[in-house]
Design goal:
Elements: E1 7-8, E2 11-16, E3 19-24, H1 34-49, E4 55-60, H2 73-76, H3 83-91, E5 97-101, E6 104-106, H4 108-115, E7 118-121, E8 126-128, H5 142-150, H6 152-158, E9 164-166, H7 167-173, E10 178-179, H8 184-197, H9 214-225, H10 232-241, H11 247-263, H12 265-279, E11 295-299, H13 303-314, E12 318-322, H14 326-345, H15 351-359, E13 361-364, E14 375-378, H16 384-397, E15 403-406, H17 413-417, E16 426-431, E17 440-444, H18 451-463, E18 467-471, H19 479-496, H20 500-510, H21 516-523, H22 525-535, H23 548-554, E19 567-568, E20 574-575, H24 577-590, H25 599-619, H26 626-636, H27 646-653, H28 655-666, H29 677-685, H30 689-695
Parallel strand pairs: 3-4, 4-5, 5-7, 6-8, 7-10, 11-12, 11-14, 12-13, 14-15, 15-16, 17-18
Antiparallel strand pairs: 1-2, 2-3, 8-9, 16-17, 19-20
Length: 696
């Protein structure tokens, strides 16, 4: 065996007899960066010129083959050799090139493999085209080579959906030729010899024909349209349809559609959403060492407590659930078991993991049984005195160094921490319901929370598969504080002339999965009523107030749970006609003559109020950066992903226009509509929220 003859920090080159081995070494995930593309091209050319080499095998060093393109290049610009050109060059080479894939072969990595003359899958391999999640489509031949290898139906199952499949599935459908259980380098050497011996056929994918059925294409387009406003899946389907053309024409059509995606505002918004998930982990406490957490305790077995327990058990943690009575404990345990069973049916848990999770769950009605837990999460109802009492008792029984967390949605974490002799160990962990499914976790940092305790909150979020967002202490923290503000706009619009269903429809057309009144019915109108009662003593009498939600609740209509709210449920579907009567009565009492309100005005007022309160949250230091607000709303409040988050969306409007709107709305209500000083400064100096992210 000859050791490496070409030295490149990103490529390992070896020749063993008639086999040229190329190891891709671009940690952590072998992204197809410019440097890797150059190194791979040069290595291939070196072996093409080597007369002793008959077959070239490419494999990944480290934990992956090629996990995809370097997304940063979509912002900074791509330099030659472009991946698409390199793949076409590989496909045309006279010497067979084999791709041996392990870990992830996603996007550009999978396209690279498809351009090779044979493909080998190793255990644990995941393949797919996630480009649609970033508002793009496979732009390096994936839409043309995939249907030629696996047929139209399987290609449409992969490309416009972003679906990932295993290596075994990839072999089964013909995307890969065979599998191996050897390590990547050994498998690469073996695959090359198999090609030489004729045991592994080598072929050019471009020489295969694709059978494109127009009816299947139209069905796929209709299916994609049902999933909302995303444009990339539709373009991806069009690109797959172009596989009916000679491949060079199909590749040209793929490039054209890829460029359309690049110029579509959705692409920038979806890239922002992708980076937001990573940016929120950059917190002031990031260098602090988190405390070890293997065992958590959860107080409260209701919807939130059982959901939190489920999430922890699915993450492999030991959980002790506490309730006040055996009956409540049985209900909570039953809910957890149902959640875990559902996760197993959906493929989220293996049979073994499901059994282990059930074994890791303990239950008790004795607070002292929680003493040895590393972290305890209080998840009882929103009553400050109840929570204070629990934390006084926890302070007395929990072991030194245990983290004490409250799952409050609104209440003052500083006041709760002050009930203990260890306020530095206290923080808020605000989960969103259902807690085992929703990805947002607000990590609420109180005045005396220690850095390592904050770091522990973020480490737990990561282990649970959540997106942790750092929040300061105020009523509602980041998300619910902003929600409380912009939600009032919907009530004001109803008073002024819009019907609840008209507001819901306008905002769903904008991209929200559900409008605010449908969401309120789903959550329970009684929850909003309790919040209004809690805040009533502090409400400024100058503030406009809509009594309509109170009138609905007074009738015992709390939404889905009671069969009616703003809408009717069960056998009766649609808007609740009795609510329309209540609205008319309240307008008459207030002397309001209803006016026509367009969908555009609904969206403008709703979003302007959201952005304005977001600016105030930034000014108050409750959120560190605009991207933290974006992440909170993307992962916890159903904000349309293709719009990038409220503060990203604000930049598409511009600060000057937002100020103009607020000043115009203030002519009718100058208490609610006030220009945040931050927004005024941005309008004056031409800066954006993106600029604030960079400074942060």
């Amino acid at each position: 065996m000859e050791r490496p003859t070409v030295t490149d920090p990103i490529v390992i080159l070896e020749r063993e007899g008639p086999v040229g081995l190329i190891g891709l070494n671009n940690p952590p995930v072998n992204a197809a960066s410019h440097a890797l593309r150059v190194g791979l091209r040069d290595a291939l050319h070196a072996f093409l010129e080597d007369r002793e080499v008959r077959v070239i095998a490419v494999y990944g060093v480290g934990r992956s083959f090629v996990a995809g393109a370097d997304i940063r290049e979509f912002q900074t610009g791509r330099k030659p050799p472009l991946l698409s050109d390199l793949i076409t060059e590989i496909e045309g080479m006279e010497k067979p090139v084999v791709a041996v894939c392990h870990g992830n072969a996603l996007g550009g990595g999978l396209e690279l493999a498809l351009g090779c003359h044979a493909r080998v899958a190793l255990p644990g391999l995941k393949v797919g085209f996630p480009e649609v999640d970033l508002g793009l489509l496979p732009g390096a031949g994936g839409t043309q080579r995939t249907p030629r290898l696996v047929g139209l139906k399987a290609a449409l199952d992969l490309i416009p959906t972003g679906k990932r499949i295993t290596g075994e599935e990839a072999v089964a459908i013909g995307l890969f030729d065979t599998a191996s259980t050897a390590d990547p380098r050994t498998a690469a050497l073996g695959a090359a010899h198999a090609v030489i011996e004729g045991a592994l056929p080598a072929r050019r994918t471009r020489e295969l024909d694709a059978d494109i059925d127009p009816a299947l294409i139209e069905t796929a387009k209709a299916k994609a349209a049902k999933k909302g406003h995303f444009t990339a899946p539709q373009r991806a389907i069009e690109a797959v349809a172009a596989a009916a053309l000679p491949i060079d024409q199909g590749l040209a059509e793929e490039v054209r559609l890829f460029k359309e995606c690049m110029e579509d505002p959705q692409r920038a918004a979806l890239v922002q959403a992708f980076f937001a998930e990573r940016a929120v982990a950059k917190i002031p406490e990031k260098d602090a060492a988190p405390r070890k957490v293997d065992h958590i305790a959860v107080i409260g077995g209701g919807t939130m407590g059982s959901g939190i327990s489920t999430a922890a058990l699915m993450a492999g943690l030991k959980v002790t659930l506490m309730e006040v009575s055996a009956e409540a404990l049985a209900r909570g345990k039953g809910t957890i078991e149902k959640n875990l069973g559902g996760a197993m049916k959906r493929g989220k848990l293996s049979d073994a993991a499901h059994a282990a999770a059930l074994t890791a769950l303990n239950t008790t009605t004795d607070l002292s049984a929680l003493a040895e837990a590393d972290l305890v999460i209080e998840a009882v109802f929103e009553d400050m005195e109840v929570k204070k009492d629990i934390f006084r008792r926890l302070d007395a029984v929990m072991k030194p160094g245990a983290v004490l967390a409250t799952n409050t949605s609104y209440l003052d974490v500083d006041a709760i921490a002050a009930e203990t002799n260890r306020p530095g160990d206290v923080l808020g962990l605000h989960f969103f319901s259902p807690a085992h499914i929703m990805r947002l976790l607000e990590v609420v940092v109180a005045q005396e929370t220690l850095p390592e305790v904050t770091a522990t909150g973020f480490a737990l979020a990561k282990r649970l598969g959540k997106v942790g967002v750092r929040a300061g202490v105020c009523d509602g923290f980041i998300g619910n504080r902003i929600l409380a503000h912009y939600r009032k706009v919907a009530d004001y619009l109803v008073l002024d002339g819009a019907a609840p269903q008209e507001i819901d429809r306008a905002l769903e057309d904008f991209g929200f999965a559900m409008g605010p009144f449908a969401v309120a019915d789903l959550a329970g109108l009684d929850i909003g009523m309790m919040t209004r009662k809690r805040l009533a003593p502090t409400r400024d009498l100058r503030e406009r107030y809509s009594p309509i939600p109170d009138r609905i609740c007074e009738r015992g209509w709390f939404g889905r749970k009671t069969g009616q709210g703003y809408y009717l449920y069960g056998d009766r579907e649609g808007p609740n006609p009795a609510v329309a009567t209540i609205i008319d009565e309240e307008r008459a009492k207030a002397g309001i003559t209803p006016r026509e309100i367009t969908d555009g005005e609904i969206v403008d007022r709703y979003m302007t109020a959201m952005i304005a309160e977001g600016a105030r949250v930034l000014e108050d230091g409750i959120a560190l950066r605009p991207v933290d607000i974006d992440a909170a709303f993307l992962f916890g409040y159903g904000f349309p992903r293709f719009r990038g988050g409220p503060m990203f969306y604000a930049d598409t409007i511009g600060a000057a226009e937002l100020v103009r709107r607020i000043e115009a709305y203030a002519e009718e209500d100058d208490f609610f509509w006030r220009v945040p000083p931050l927004l005024a400064r941005m309008a004056a100096d031409g800066t954006t929220f993106a600029d604030l992210n960079e400074r942060g």
